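Need tokens for this chain, all 362 residues.
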Amino acid sequence: MVFYKIYDRLTLALADAALVRDFDVDFDYVANNTSTIRTTRESKGHKGDLIALLEGATLVALGVVTAIDNTDMRISFKHPKELFNDNVLNVFHWTNVGLPAELNKGFEAVQGLRTILEFGFVNTADPERRLPLEIRTFGAHAGAVWADDAACLNVVDFIDFLFDHYNIRVDFELDFINDRIVCTIARNTTSGLVLKDNIRLSKPEMDNNELPRENRAALFDKNTGRIVQMFYLLQNNDITTNVNAANRVLPPATRFIEWDQVEAIREGYTMMDLARSEIGGNIYNHCIKYQLSKTQNMVQPNHFRIGDQITIIYEGRSYDSIFTGLKFKMRDRFITCLFGKTRIDFTDRMRIHNNRRFAKKE
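Here are the structure tokens for all 362 residues:
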């Protein structure tokens, strides 16, 4: 039996529940696409509420309602990070905005995100915005740099930046004992997972049409234009100053980055930090789609965590990637696993570009 439950986002009180006729789950962490549920009756839920899709006692998906169409009896929802799809003052730009301690442009990324979530959704004076959050953290990355100097900061945009550059994700679960939304901010360091072609799956769909993003960072002095340091991306996603490193990513594709020594000292970041924030993660600038049969038991895609580093072995070749999402329908025989940070579908890429562009202009 497949059914859904909708919970009030402020209290976690049960608002609605019903059987499901059909569903289409698209939990793509990068593109943040919309999933849908076909219901058996009109829903009493509201936009912004939390929704749980269940098959028996198994949680299939947890999300945030984005639309309810009672004429067509359809509910649309997105990944739970949609809870934070709002703007706050850019705490890296302004001072005295109400934070207990201001963040510099150079910051520890996991605790930095926690500070922003508490600022925007816990310590807010607006009772309709104040969420019953319990924020947990795992891991750290001290060398993060947020260089966007806009007046406002879109929180989902910031979450996506941390995943894109530092492999930091947000996970969610509901605690009904304490009526809390548990949000875990984690820097994913899980590696060594292998996906082989000896299980029941389809031929992987590789995106070979994406131009590589920059793998060579040239820092130039803000005042003179002189190149002050070069950094090179390595195949293990690290950064080096060694131009002759054997595992450099090639061919060279350069990104020029303005360097302000005075600001860097004041804000607390190094040249290495800045370079990593601009070209880090670019080895995952690809998309691989893999369909796994629902009847096989060798790989359980629901056990993957966003950001898990996975080696895909197919026909004797190895592809290093990270897990970034799942797509599946109620009656499909396969689950589609997504790996990498770009998308084959052009409309997905344009949606990401437009969402971020307009959010920064708020």
